[in-house]
Task: structure prediction
Amino acid sequence: MDISVYYPGDSEIKARLRDRLTAYSLRLTNDPWESSINISMDGLTAQLMKFVDIASTSPDLITFSKRQLFKTYSELFDYIIILISLTRQRVLEKDELQSGDFLYISIIPLKRADQACLDFEIQWVTGK
Result:
């Protein structure tokens, strides 16, 4: 399963998110029963190019969008990992993960980071 995460915010937060996603990915790859998973942090252009390539050949795209408030960045990171886990579970319940399965996540800040609540729009697209 190919997973692309786009986050346009602060580079320090992006690095922390990348570290959490890497740790999650390593946990999965250490289990011999887990299917392959590739998680990448992409820029907007790279993610859009991947999406256009997939959208032109995939008849089964599912798109979601949710506005969510978080108290900490750790909550945001947990939310993204849970989103990935639930998507993988849904795909596994339907059939085995295949190389064509994908999940693209865009994390869009809606308020400045110095405000009390972290307000984000989380958009994701999944399919084969």
